[in-house]
Design brief:
single chain, mainly beta, UDP N-Acetylglucosamine Acyltransferase, domain 1, Jelly Rolls, 2 domains, 9-stranded mixed beta sheet, 6-stranded mixed beta sheet, about 35% strand
Length: about 300
């Protein structure tokens, strides 16, 4: 007697099915597949041999999971979402190894979305219905369209907020550990406006490096990493861009659109910049020279580190 449910019309050839999983009508699971605990495989789902499904996963009707697909815990896959595993398929020609596609923990894929082979759908990401995903999807991002583009980030209970010099300091602090906005002085006369900062004084650290980000295609994404020890100050001196900051517990989105407002990002904060206007110029001051080993580029690894 099994500790999972199989509908009489389903074909389940795998012996590796987790407890409390429910497999409904006309589902076919091949012998090599692995299905975790408390999953829900709805009508007309097909699962090929080299497929691993984690725990508490929902696969809605009409989905086929081909060799090379990995679905991590707590993922939702909407009806008729399409996965692919061969970038150049030909009839009766098989690659030595199929492309590995990974849907990371907590992600959701909307109905009729198409996922091209070999991609990573990041942790907690949301793929909109009908989207055609051609590139990796960053953690916590929301993508829609063909090709899929980032339109927002999942902020949970923390609202996105648009900040300007006139209003930013009237509200509460940013609820992400140590992140804060700095208002720089503005001196105006008939010759124009001047904003400055110096250390010691207005700057929260002594800069040892700066770099400038500009000419960014408006829908492209920068950042997507944290630093072990580096501090940064971001100032959008022209145009606007949005910055998502995340401390592993709280997440907030801030729009930088004033050259006299700086966003201070301390160490161990995951930061992403996107929604660049066509004329955006973002200046970043850093507390140290470039060191590759100071970067944390994997979000799962970042969460593991901050959990300590």
């Amino acid at each position: 007697m099994t500790d999972y449910l199989v509908h009489p019309s389903a074909i389940v050839e795998s012996a590796r099915i987790g407890k409390a999983t429910r497999i409904w009508a006309f589902v076919h699971v091949l012998p090599g597949a692995v299905v975790g605990d408390d999953c829900n495989l709805c009508d007309h789902v097909f699962v090929e041999n080299d497929v691993v499904i984690g725990d508490r996963v929902t696969i809605k009707s009409g989905v086929q999971l081909w060799d090379g697909i990995r679905i991590e815990d707590d993922v939702f896959v909407g009806p008729n979402a399409s996965f692919t595993n061969d970038p150049f398929p030909r009839s009766k020609e098989h690659p030595d190894e199929y492309s590995r596609t990974v849907v990371q923990k907590g992600a959701s894929i909307g109905a009729n979305a198409t996922i091209l082979p070999g991609l990573i759908i990041g942790q907690n990401a949301m793929v909109g219905a009908g989207a055609v995903v051609t590139k990796n999807v960053p953690p916590n991002s929301i993508v829609v369209g063909n090709p899929a583009r980032i339109v927002s980030y999942v902020t949970g209970d923390v609202p996105s907020r648009k900040l300007s010099a006139a209003t930013v300091f009237e509200g509460d602090d940013i609820p992400v550990g140590g992140v804060r906005l700095l208002q720089l002085p503005k001196i105006s006369d008939l010759r124009g406006d001047l904003t400055f900062a110096e250390t010691p004084g207005l700057l929260p650290f002594e800069p040892r490096r700066f770099f400038i980000i500009y000419n960014v295609p408006g829908k492209d994404v920068r950042g997507e990493h944290a630093h072990h020890v580096l501090e940064q100050l971001l100032i959008c001196v022209k145009g606007s861009c949005s910055v998502v900051v995340d401390d592993g517990r709280n997440r907030s989105e801030i729009t930088l659109d004033e050259p006299r407002v700086g966003l201070y990002i301390p160490p161990m904060i995951w930061a992403t910049q996107y929604k660049f206007s066509n004329d955006a110029v973002l200046v970043v001051f850093a507390s140290n020279v470039y060191k590759a080993e100071d970067y944390i580029r994997d979000y799962s690894e970042y969460l593991r580190l901050v959990s300590k």
